[in-house]
Amino acid sequence: MQPDTDTLRAWYREMLLVRRFEERARQAYQQGKIGGFLHLYIGEEAIAAGAIHALKPQDHIVTHYRDHGHAIARGLDPKRLMAELFGRVDGYNKGRGGSMHFADASQNFWGGYAIVAGHLTIAVGLALAARRSGSDAIVLAIFGDGATDNGTFYECLNFAKVWDLPVIFLCENNQFGMGVAIEKASAVTDVHKKACMADMLAHQVDGMDVVKVNALFGRIVEEVRAGSGPQFVEARCFRYQGHSVADPDQYRSKELIEQWKRRDPIERARRMLIEERGVSPDEIVALDAGVEREIDEAVAYADASPAPDPATMVEHVYANPI
């Protein structure tokens, strides 16, 4: 089903917001305002917008450390997210989580996790809890292609299928696990086929097309909610940046990167709005300017937020600190 114009416009704005958030985060990292590692989502925005907007508020999201786009798509405030990147007290985790650990329990957004495939165990646990409590909530577990060569991945798919749990496994296959091309690391490069080990229904979708992603998720989310059991989705995509901002990205050719940029999800949505939906270019320009203002406000908010008091170093570490 094709989205109406207002929905497509909202998706376009959200994808652009994620792109601009990431670009300003990269700039702040290079200015020394963000510490640790910074993994950018640039190029993959259609997956977050398309998949997450098929969920309901009671549904759970557990994701990996390339998590900024997922958080924004779930509705977390870019100002507080930027403050978290800056390590400031007004961040979602009071500056203690940083880039790889965005989380907001009020949104059932249970965070980014730095251990490759490790968070899939949490997703399966949340799905088991939903089933036992009688809730109609489902769980979306997001991970990269590198996680599919990890033993935990297979264990989690197996248990989810054995217990018939309401979880969707979403692999963002951007073709590279850190600096290693998938064909050099995995015997199966169409990773949705790996779900056959658990006899699980699996799909492959163009992760550069927000309309196709949402159409698929709009269907399977309700199937899983209705009791179909777990399902698997491979969204084929490409990250335009290196694995992290610190990655010199010498292992991919410029030609390959440009090839994928010609399928850019934001440009695709912009063309659809103008050429197929009759939205005026002036309206798009105004919308773009609004996104720029929102990002400027987010950076200003993060800059103005204070750093945590060193005396609070041991606070907010455990749920019930001693």
Overview features:
single chain, 322 residues, alpha/beta, Rossmann fold, six-stranded parallel beta sheet, two-stranded antiparallel sheet, 11 helices, 8 strands, globular
Query: Structural class, from helix and strand content?
Result: alpha/beta
Number of helices: 11
- What's the domain count? 1
In helices, the fraction of residues equals: 40-55%
- Spatial arrangement of strands, main beta sheet: 2-1-3-4-8-7
Strand count, sense and closure of the main sheet? 6 strands, parallel
Return the CATH architecture: 3-Layer(aba) Sandwich
The counted number of beta strands is 8
Q: Roughly how many Å apart are the termini?
A: 54 Å
Q: Which H/E pattern describes the elements?
A: HHEHHEHEHEEEHEHEHHH
Describe the global form. globular
CATH class: Alpha Beta
Mean pLDDT: 96
CATH topology: Rossmann fold
Give your account of this protein's structure.
The chain has 322 residues and is α/β, with parallel strands linked by helices. The protein has one domain: Thiamin diphosphate (ThDP)-binding fold, Pyr/PP domains (Rossmann fold), CATH 3.40.50. It has helices at 5-30, 45-52, 68-74, 78-85, 120-133, 151-162, 182-185, 210-225, 254-261, 265-276, 281-304; strands at 60-64, 109-113, 139-144, 167-173, 176-177, 180-181, 201-206, 231-236. A 6-stranded parallel sheet has the order 2-1-3-4-8-7, with helices on both faces. Strands 5-6 form a two-stranded antiparallel sheet. Strand 3 (139-144), helix 6 and strand 4 (167-173) form a beta-alpha-beta unit. Helix 1 (5-30) crosses helix 11 (281-304). The radius of gyration is 19 Å and the shape is globular. It starts with a helix and ends in an 18-residue tail after the last helix. The mean pLDDT is 96.
